């Protein structure tokens, strides 16, 4: 899961982009090849039946009229707008969930900084495990891969994520709530109690540090709650159904509207009747309304491209609408669990280093403006950034300060000043008197 491919495109170029087209896992070919194969089989079956099976002219012309009718009205389905807006909403929703996943790094680094010492090591590890447990309890509700890995509380006990006593507490809470509500908040509450006790016994030296650690726990709980909310409240089902129906109906219509037809040609006889003539006869017409200028290519190339684009778009939405499933591009929640648990423990288990800090590598000197390059990196070294005003050059006269005594300024026309209005308040009177003074009376003339 979670297909990473940008390592194949270090720089823009045709070869890099073309190389991405060869990736099978998570690619468009893997996503739509079954649908495309079924579509081509149906299209070919209809085409072969039309070309070889319709011997009766009435049946043949009736089928041709049906295809022309389908071609005339297939664009009435606003597929591009409906599908584009839907996929945009799904992608935004998917990315929001990705960014909501709680990581323990901030909490663990703060625990190591605000609660130092060997004596607080077990406390730091316990808070980390509780935060991790809360995250796993959440992911068990939203991710199929996680619930398969930890189907019961007993599995969490066996992996060291929870004790028997803690399991009984959770089971009691589940019994109280009748299993109707998520209980991922419970381990966070245990961690908050431990922090409060550490504050009371002086292990946390200030209220500010205590509040910061509490906020870290609240952020993890908030992220868990947001994931549960996204799993509960989905994009309205009617919209998902509408998009799916629109795509499938549209391409069902194209099975007929995009057929290459060979309608019979007719000319008008002297008696005013239509007479069937060989195709290509001068002044001949077909009676089904088909455009005879279209060449018979047998294979609908542009319809196939349209199918790839629209069905590929739909597959993107189907994959991302539940980012915690088991598709190629779904989030690898199990890796997040493994990474958070081990890295979190490493952060809070580090012993205090009593050694004297090392001298700075540059001593009292200032580092150079540019650090050394390897031969490989020097080939791609860029010049320093150039900002818009960096190359602006002014003459000496243009850069002179405003000095009225200088002969250059005597040649410049002084800008006209605008009329000024001054207000004065006579405090000896019972009311305010306003005097309007025009600085340049001649401007009023």
Give a verbal description of the structure.
With 445 residues, the chain is an all-alpha fold. The protein contains 16 helices and 2 strands. A two-stranded antiparallel sheet has the order 1-2. Strand 1 and strand 2 form a beta hairpin. The chain is flat and about 110 Å long. The N and C termini lie far apart (83 Å).
Q: How far is the N terminus from the C terminus?
A: 83 Å
Instruction: Catalogue the unreliable spans.
Output: 421-445
Number of strands: 2
- Rg, Cα atoms, Å: 38 Å
Average pLDDT works out at 85
Question: How many distinct helices?
Answer: 16
Key features of this structure:
mainly alpha, about 55% helix
Short précis:
This protein is mainly alpha-helical and 445 residues long. The chain is built from 16 helices and two strands.
How do the strands and helices of this protein lay out in sequence?
Layout: H1 14-20, H2 28-53, H3 57-73, H4 79-100, H5 105-114, H6 121-142, H7 144-149, H8 153-158, H9 164-177, H10 185-200, H11 207-232, H12 237-257, E1 265-268, E2 274-277, H13 301-320, H14 333-349, H15 375-378, H16 407-410
Antiparallel strand pairs: 1-2
Helix pairs in contact: 2-13, 3-12, 4-12, 4-13, 5-11, 5-14, 6-10, 6-11, 6-14, 10-11, 12-13
């Amino acid at each position: 899961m979670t297909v990473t491919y940008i390592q194949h495109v270090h720089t823009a170029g045709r070869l890099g982009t073309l190389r991405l087209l060869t990736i099978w896992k998570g690619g468009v070919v893997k996503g739509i090849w079954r649908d495309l194969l079924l579509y081509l089989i149906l299209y070919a079956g209809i085409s072969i039946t039309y070309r070889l099976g319709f011997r009766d002219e009435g049946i043949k012309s009736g089928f041709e009229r049906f295809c022309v009718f389908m071609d005339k009205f297939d664009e009435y389905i606003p597929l591009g707008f409906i599908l584009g807006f839907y996929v945009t909403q799904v992608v935004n929703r998917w990315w929001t969930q990705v960014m909501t996943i709680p990581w323990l790094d901030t909490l663990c680094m703060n625990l190591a900084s605000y609660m130092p010492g060997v004596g607080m090591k077990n406390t730091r590890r316990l808070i980390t495990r509780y935060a991790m447990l809360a995250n796993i309890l959440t992911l068990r509700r939203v991710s199929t891969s996680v619930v398969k890995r930890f189907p019961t509380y007993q599995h969490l006990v066996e992996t060291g994520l929870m004790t028997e006593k803690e399991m009984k507490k959770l089971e009691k809470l589940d019994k109280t709530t009748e299993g109707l509500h998520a209980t991922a908040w419970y381990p966070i509450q245990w961690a908050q109690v431990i922090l409060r006790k550490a504050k009371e016994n002086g292990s946390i030296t200030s209220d500010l540090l205590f509040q910061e650690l509490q906020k870290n726990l609240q952020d993890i709980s908030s992220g868990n709650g947001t994931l549960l909310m996204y799993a509960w409240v989905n994009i309205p089902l009617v919209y998902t159904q509408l998009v799916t129906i629109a795509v499938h109906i549209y391409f069902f219509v194209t099975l007929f509207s995009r057929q290459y037809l060979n309608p019979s040609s007719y000319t008008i006889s002297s008696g005013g009747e239509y007479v069937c003539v060989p195709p290509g006869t001068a002044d001949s017409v077909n009676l089904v309304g088909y455009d005879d200028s279209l060449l018979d290519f047998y294979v609908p190339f542009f319809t196939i491209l349209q199918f790839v684009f629209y069905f590929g778009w739909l597959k993107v939405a189907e994959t991302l609408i539940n980012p915690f499933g088991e598709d190629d591009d779904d989030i690898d929640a199990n890796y997040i669990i493994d990474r958070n648990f081990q890295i979190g423990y490493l952060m809070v288990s580090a012993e205090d280093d009593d050694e004297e800090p090392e001298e700075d590598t540059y001593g009292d000197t200032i580092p150079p403006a540019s650090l050394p390059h390897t031969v490989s990196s020097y080939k791609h070294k860029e010049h320093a950034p150039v900002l818009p005003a960096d190359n602006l050059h002014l003459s000496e006269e243009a850069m002179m300060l405003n000095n009225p005594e200088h002969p250059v300024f005597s040649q410049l026309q002084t800008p006209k000043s605008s009329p000024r209005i001054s207000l004065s308040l006579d405090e000896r009177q019972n009311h305010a008197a306003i005097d309007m003074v025009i600085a340049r009376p001649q401007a009023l003339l």
